[in-house]
Every structure is written in structure tokens, then in C-alpha cells.
Specification:
Elements: E1 7-9, H1 13-17, E2 25-32, E3 40-47, E4 57-61, H2 67-83, H3 90-112, H4 119-125, H5 130-133, E5 137-146, H6 152-164, E6 168-172, E7 177-184, H7 185-196, E8 203-213, H8 216-222, E9 229-231, H9 243-252, H10 259-263
Parallel strand pairs: 6-9
Antiparallel strand pairs: 1-2, 2-3, 3-4, 5-7, 5-8, 6-7
Helix pairs in contact: 2-3, 3-4
Length: 267
């Protein structure tokens, strides 16, 4: 655990809170293992001016860990705070960092009983805890087809709700209207249900793509839109959707072969 003396601040918090310091607020916490005295990890947290609406940035340093371990731990802690964007998340950083340190020190102690190597070598030879390496995530992409999307409020909701849930995708207003949304399965399903709960003449999920990812890196590779969700307004004078422009957008992100399933026509 860390004590008060293990906290360091780049600027005075009261000055920052009062707006006398315009930069982001940065502080560091040093976590210590109770089982292995030499095992420590420094977690630096940067609070943006708009925190908690904007998630903190996390940096991790330790002479005890390998670069691969540090990278994995940092990504895990960043995912923890990103998932809580809009809410206070600092206690989750403290809890998660301590849990990781305790897990690695426990595994290192087990190795120590059978290995004559130095403690640093032992720690760096221990795999990052399973809770980090095998955090499976289910990816889901939905292609939603509506009779039309004209209403300004609906169009704003489609964008705002996707951004709230950190989902990627694109919305094509017009006739027909098309929404492509992707991300973590639970969030996509909640978003889809929320969109469909609005008053529509006709709306349905035309196509779904789902995959259980072994880790976050695999999940990210499937997210062709990242966490960017935008509206593309491609209509002719009758407000009919320009399908050629939709095909061009799908092609730009490697999804051109979905065009036929979406509209029942080839590209």
C-alpha cells in the first residue's frame, strides 16, 4: 500500500481547483508490496481540467517490472478509468494498482521458493496476472436499417448516445436511414435498444457481427471506427440516401463486402 509520504504533487491542488493553475493536475503514487520489500510501482495520474467528464491519463513506472509488464498494467489501469468517464475514478486506480501488485508479489514469492535468481529477475519472469492477460471482451457490430431518418432530435440522440457509451460507428440520415455501431457487446446492445425505443415507422437490425476477443488488443483491431461516431449526410434532392456514398464509406474502413447484406444489392 502507499502512505502519505508516497504521494507527490506537480502543482498545489487548491491552486489548480481554484483555477490559478491552468495546466492539468498531476500527482504520483508509489505502491509497495508487503511481501517483497523491493517490489514497488509508481503510478502517475494526470487529471484534465474537465475531470471527471474527461478520464484521467495514467502512466506507470517501476524498476521491478519488465517493459511488457509495465505496458500491460498501464493499459489495464487506463481501461479502468476510461470505463468510468463521467464518474470519480481515483479510488478505482488505487484499488486496481494495489491488487495487481499483490498478485504479482504473491506469484513472485511462489517462484522464489524454487528459484535461486534475484528478486528483480523473479518478478520480471512472472507472467502478468491472469486477470489482466485474459480479460476477454465480446466485440459486436450492428448494422441498423430504418425506413428513414429525418428528425433532428433523433439524429442528435443517435450521435450523443453513441458518444456517451464510447462506441464507434457512423449514421447516415435520409431514406432509408442507416446506423452502423460497434464496440463492447453490452454497450452496443444497450445503445441499439435505446435507439429503437424512439418512435419509428420501421426499424430493424439488418446485420450483426460478433466475436469473443481474447484481449483488448484483439478487440481494438476489430473496431474499424475506433471510438469515433459521426454523421455522414449523403442524400439527393428527394432526401433519398446516396447508396454509392455509403459504399465508399464502407470501403474506406474495409467493410465493402457488407454492402450487399445491408441493402440487398452488390457493390
Amino acid at each position: 500500500m502507499f502512505a502519505e509520504q508516497d504521494l507527490t504533487f506537480a502543482v498545489n491542488f487548491e491552486d489548480w481547483k481554484a483555477g490559478r493553475v491552468l495546466s492539468d493536475f498531476e500527482f504520483s503514487m508509489k505502491f509497495r508490496s508487503q511481501r517483497l520489500s523491493s517490489l514497488t510501482i509508481d503510478v502517475t495520474v494526470t487529471l484534465p481540467r474537465l475531470y471527471p467528464d474527461v478520464a484521467p491519463r495514467i502512466r506507470v513506472e517501476s524498476k521491478s517490472f519488465s517493459n511488457k509488464q509495465l505496458d500491460t498494467v498501464a493499459k489495464h489501469l487506463q481501461r479502468v478509468v476510461d470505463a468510468e468517464s463521467g464518474n470519480e475514478s481515483l479510488m478505482l486506480v488505487v484499488q486496481s494498482a494495489q491488487e495487481i501488485l499483490d498478485q504479482i508479489s504473491e506469484d513472485s514469492s511462489d517462484h522464489h521458493a524454487t528459484s535461486p535468481a534475484t528478486s528483480t529477475h523473479i518478478v520480471q519472469s512472472v507472467p502478468v496476472p491472469t486477470l489482466l492477460e485474459s480479460q476477454r471482451i465480446t466485440f459486436l457490430r450492428e448494422f441498423i436499417l430504418s425506413h428513414h431518418i429525418y428528425n433532428k432530435t433523433k439524429r442528435e440522440n443517435i450521435l450523443d448516445w453513441a458518444k456517451e457509451s464510447k462506441l464507434g460507428g457512423v449514421s447516415f440520415p435520409g431514406k432509408p436511414g442507416v446506423i452502423i455501431v460497434e464496440g463492447e457487446k453490452k454497450s452496443v446492445l444497450e445503445y441499439s435498444a435505446r435507439v429503437k425505443s424512439m418512435n419509428w415507422q420501421r426499424i430493424r437490425t439488418q446485420l450483426t457481427e460478433e466475436k469473443l476477443c481474447e484481449d483488448f488488443e484483439e478487440f481494438q483491431k476489430l473496431c474499424v471506427f475506433g471510438e469515433k461516431f459521426e454523421e455522414k449526410h449523403f442524400v439527393n434532392h428527394n432526401n433519398h440516401l446516396d447508396s454509392a456514398q455509403v459504399l465508399a464509406t464502407l470501403t474506406s474502413v474495409g467493410l465493402s463486402d457488407r454492402f450487399h447484406s445491408l441493402f440487398g444489392m452488390s457493390g
